[in-house]
Write a structure and sequence with these properties.
The complex is a heterodimer of chains A (about 425) and B (about 375). Chain A has 17 helices and 12 strands. Chain A has helices at about 20-30, 55-60, 65-70, 85-95, 110-115, 120-125, 150-155, 175-200, 210-215, 220-225, 265-275, 285-290, 290-300, 305-315, 335, 380-385, 390-400; strands at about 10-15, 35-40, 75-80, 100-105, 130, 205, 245-250, 255-260, 320, 340-345, 350-355, 360. In chain A, helix 1 (about 20-30) packs across helix 8 and helix 7 (about 150-155) packs across helix 8. In chain B, strands 3-2-1-4-5-6 form a 6-stranded parallel sheet. A 3-stranded antiparallel sheet of chain B has the order 7-8-9, with helices on one face. In chain B, strands 11-10-13 form a 3-stranded mixed sheet. In chain B, helix 1 (about 20-30) packs across helix 5 (about 155-175). The model of chain B has no long low-confidence stretch (mean pLDDT about 95). Classes of the chains: A alpha/beta (about 425), B alpha/beta (about 375).
Chain lengths: ~425, ~375
Amino acid sequence: MKGTHDALAGIRIIDLSMGWAGPLAARQLADMGADVIKVESCERFDWWRSWEATQAWIDDDGAEKSTAFNTVNRNKRNVTLDLEDDEGRDLLLRLVAGANAVVENFSGSVLPKLRLGYDVFKAVNPAIILLSMPAFGSTGPWAGFRAYGSTVEQSSGLPHLTGRTGDPPTMQHVALGDAVGGLNGSAALLTALRHQSRTGEGQYVDLSQVEGLFPMAAHGILEYTATGSAPVRLGSRHREYAPHGVYPCAGDDDWIVIQVRDDAEWQALKRVSGDALAGFGDVADRHARQDDLDARLGAWTADQDANELMFRLQQARVPAAATHRNGDLLEDPHLAARGFWQWRDRAVVGSQPNPSPAYRIGAKPFPVVAPAPTLGQHNDEVLGDLLGVSKDDLARLRRTGIIGEKPRMRGITPS
Amino acid sequence: MVQDQALAGIRVVDISGSVSTGFCAKVFADYGADVINLEPEGGFRTRNLAPLIGGTAPNASAMHAWLSTNKKSVRADAIGPAQCATIIGEADLLLDDGQEHGFDCGGVRSSISWYGRGGPYENFVGTDAQCFALNGMIRNIGPIEGPPIMTAGYQAEVTAGITAYTASLAQVLAGELGNRRNPVHIETSIFESCICFTDVGAVGFHNSGLQASRMGINRFPPTYPLGVFPCRDGWIGVTVLTPSQWHSFCKLLGMDELAEVPLFQSSVGRLQARDVIEPLMCERFETFSAEDLFYKGQQAAIPLARVPTMEELFEVDQFQIRNAMTEATLPDGETLRVPSVAFRLYSTPPSFGGPVAALGQHSGDYA
C-alpha cells in the first residue's frame, strides 16, 4: 500500500504552464505524489524566472534564483525541449503518450503555432486530459485575451467590493487571480482524473481564471442578484457590526483587525479595554456614533503591541488579528509550531523555506520531497531513462540546442 | 445525480454547514456526487447568512442557495442518531469542522477549521479578514498613511473550500486507485490555505530582506503601471509588465516620448518614476471610453481589463456566452442568478445551477 501522502502515485502530469497559476495547479498534485514533469525550453523558459532576461542575468545564474519560480515548482522534474523544432516536439508527444494529463496556460495562439493542442495530444494518447487555463476561458470573444493575475482580479468585479466610499475600485492584488486559478486548476485536473480512472476516457478541460474569482466576490454578486443593489463599499466598516475595523498599534505601521459581531463579543471587548469604551450601548448606538467609537478604540490600541493585544483579545473571545507583513510569516509562532515552513537546500540559492500544503494527515505536513528543479535538471533521467533516448542522441540534442541546462537569449547559437 | 458526470457514484455528507465545507461540497455536487447536507434542527449556519431573498431563514439565504444547488437536505433530529451514523458510515467523504462528533466515517473524513490543530492560534475565534491580516495581505491594501483596508466577504473560506476539495478528492481517488486502503482523516486550515497568496513574498523576504510596504490604493510593487484608473466613462484595469508591453502601451496612449526612456524599460524603474508617468497616463485615459481602451489594448497584446460593477458582470458578453452565471431554483420556485463552477470538463460537464433543497426536504428518504 502506498502512503497516504502519495495519494496520486502512478499519475503523470506534463506541465507546460508558466507563471503562477498553472505551475501551482500542477504543484499541488506533485505534493500528493503525482509525477509532474515540467517542460521548458532554453530560449522560451518559464517567464517567472524573469520577464526581463539579459545575458548578464543568464551569466549570473539568474534563472535559478527566482523566488517565485522556486516556490511553485517544487516536487517536480524538469526537462527542456525546443518545441519549435520537430524533434523537440516529437519528444514532447512521446512524453504525452505516457501521461495522464497535460497542463497549459498559454495565450490562445501559442499551442496552434507549435502545431500542438488537444487533438494532437489525443492522437498519441486517446485517454489524455488537457487542462487549459486561459484568463477568460477557451471560448467566447475574449478567449485569446491576455491577462496576469492582477488583470484577472480587475476583471472579476472584486475591486468594486473593496475599499472606501469615494476611492477608486480597490485591488487586493498579490496576483489574486493567479493563486485562485491554480487552486481551481488542481481541482479541475483531479475531477477529470477521477473520470479517467473509472472509464479510461480523457477530455479537454477549460478553466476560466476570472470565473474562478467570482466565488471570492460572491457576497457582492449575490447581494446584487437578491436585492437589485450592489453593496456599498464601507472601507473596513460593516453595515451590521460595530466596532469593525483596523486600528493602530505601537510600532512602525503596526495595526490590528478587530471585528465585534454580537453582544457577547462586545461585552468581552469592553471587559478587556476597561473604561476605554464606556458609554457606548447596543449595536444601533455604536453604529450611530461610529466615528467616536473608532477614535476611542483606536486611542486604546495605539500604544499596545499588536501581537500581544491579539492574544489578549482572542483569549477573551474577541475576533482580532495583527496585520502581519509577508516576511513575518517566516517567524509566525503558529506556523512554526505546526512545522509549516519546510527548509530544503536548493542548487544556486541554498537553504530555502517551502510552504507546506494547507492540508495535512496527522500532525505533520505533507513532505516537500524535492526543491524546485533547475532548468533541464532531469533531461537525462526523463528523456534517457523514461523515453529511451540514447546517450549519443542526448549529446546531439544538447549540441543542437534542442535540450540544455542553461537559458539562452533568443537567436543565440548554443555553445 | 447524473450518471455520466465525473464524480458520479461518490457520496458526500456535510455535517458542518460552513461556507468552506459548503463550497467544497458544492463543487462535488456540481460534478455529480450525491451530496447530503445533514443539518441540525434549525439548519446550517449558512441558511442565516445575508442577503435574504424576500423571506426569512431557513430557506431564503442567497448565500446558502448558491452553495447548495443539487444537494439534499436531511434533518439529523428527524432521522435519529442511528440513521445519521449509517449515512456517515457509508459516505465516501465526510465534511466537518474538525470537532469530535462521535461518528465514524468509513472513507475520507475531511475537516476544515480556521487554524488547524496545534499551535497558539488553534483556539482563536476565526474570521475571513483575520486570515488576510495574518497572511500579510491586508497590510498592503489602502492609503500609505493607513489604516490598511480589510478584505470583505468570505474569501478565506472560499479559498479553503476549493483547497479542501482538491485534498479530499485526491484521497477519494487514492482509494479507487488502490493507493489508500484505510480510512483517512485529512485536515485543511483556512489560514494556511490563504498563505498561497503571500508565500512567495515571505520567501522573497528570506532571500532579499525586503518587506513589501503599503504604497497607496491600487499601487503594488514592483509592477508599474498597475491599478484601476478612471476613463471617460468607467474604469480601466492596467498591468504593464514587460518591455514590449510598455512600448505598446505608450503607443496606444500616444506617449511615444516615454517609450524608449532607459529607466522605464523595467517595472522597477517605472515605479520609481511614477510621479512623472502617472499624470500623463491619467490625462490620456480620460480621453478614452473604458470599453474602447480595453479592446484596443488587448488587440495590441496589452493585458488591460474592464473593471465591471456587479450589475455589469451580468451584461458582459464573454460571461454570458460561457454561462458564467447560472440559476439556483429556490424551494418556493423562485430563481436566483449565481456564479457557475469555474472549470468545465467538456465530455462530462458540470450542472449549471439547479434546485436548492428546503431544510429537511429529503429527511423522509433516509428515515
